[in-house]
Design a protein that fits this description.
By secondary structure, the chain is an alpha/beta fold. About 25% of the residues lie in helices and about 25% in strands. The protein has ten helices and 24 strands. The protein has an eight-stranded mixed β-sheet with strand order 6-7-5-15-16-17-14-21. It has a six-stranded mixed β-sheet with strand order 9-2-1-13-23-22, with helices on one face. Strand 10 and strand 11 form a beta hairpin. Helix 1 runs parallel beside helix 5 and helix 1 crosses helix 8. The relative contact order is 0.18.
Amino acid sequence: MSTNHLPPPPPQHIPSSLLIIGSGVFGLTTALTLSTRHPQTPITIVDRHSLFPSSLSPDAASIDTSRILRADYADEVYASLAGEAIAKWAQGFGDVWWRCGMALVHNVDDHIHEYVEKSRENVTRLCGPDAVRSIDSVEDWKEIPGAGSQGGGVPVAGEWKGYLNRGSGWADAEEAMMVVLEQCRARPNLTMRSFVVKELIYDDTHKRVLGVRNEEEQEVCAELTILATGAWTGGLLDLSGRALSTGQTMAYLSLTPEEEARLRDMPVVLNLSTGWFTFPPRNGLLKIATHTLGYLNTQEITLGGKGKVEVVEVSVPRTSVTNPGEDVPQEAEEALRAGLRKLLPELADRPFSKTRICWYTDTPTSDFIIGHHPDIAGLFMATGGSGHAFKFLPVLGEKVADAIEGRLEKVLQNKWRWREGVVDIREAKGDGSRGRSVRKELAALLQSSL
């Protein structure tokens, strides 16, 4: 589904004023694209973080040391769109991303091998057969830089299989977001404010959103409000059955200069059976993480504005900002160390220098939610990243802007639409890339770890 042949979109009619809630990857890229396409339209972007706009929310999913850049999808549409995005990473973000390759693997005899094989077909089509090589044996692993070739573990000894895609890589997510932030700050029609949103403002019919309100009853209004609030979206709008905030665990290990030098040329490694993955080290740190169905933090909250209020149970982020000093659950630490024992056993028992829970906004199919709300005028949604949106940074704002302007490609309109039928999302498995895991309540696990 390549769109490389499309000319730059002509100016389209959009609302007279725009309000974007959230400064993550959806919010900032949308703000930059719209302010560039429509230089006479006043655009305001607000974020809950008190230091915004000089810096970004420290607990936002897109603010981190690293994110995978891959076209390795079983879904052909996402694979093609990711291929376009990676080409633009190469053009405009040369200092903050690295094409080191990625080993996409699975446990032998795991059902998820079908996802891996379909991904291989798609990247071979996109990148050519020379970009992809099989990992089927101990000998294959020993030829991979930084893994078996230089003293690391050899997990394929009957356990991990897959392929190496030389065209994939990773980015320093926070540095990339700061590049976009600086570009936004240079736009004369774009205003950025620190503003903790308490609720949406509705008109008397409760069928139109007018803007947002904070705890001090201050208001920011616009003709169109764009919710780009990631894992915090469920605290402003009822997403029951359509999206769910889930926590994913990660940890960082300090390395010696010699260890970092040995592992510097390794690829990203992602095991879809367990969700465990790691990156080449940088600045003395090695990051390991899991991409699973994640943890929940279910709370009872109040939704709605003045005149119409409802109480709902939703999962909301529990982060280093809301709960400083909190560690990951014991079972999560064990899962993180289990992956190290397979790939880098000499590091498996090293103390973590830092841990973190990163919050996704998962949808039942792992498709984003991008579009005008079908029942509430003046409200547009750009959320549901499902743990894989960041790689699309160079094209994401363009797609959101296209949707606002009514010119988004039909195939993406269908994928990213507001779903009319709701499901039991707590049991939904996403796009099939999360392996064998179940969602659990975080608070109970943290309490049992004390």
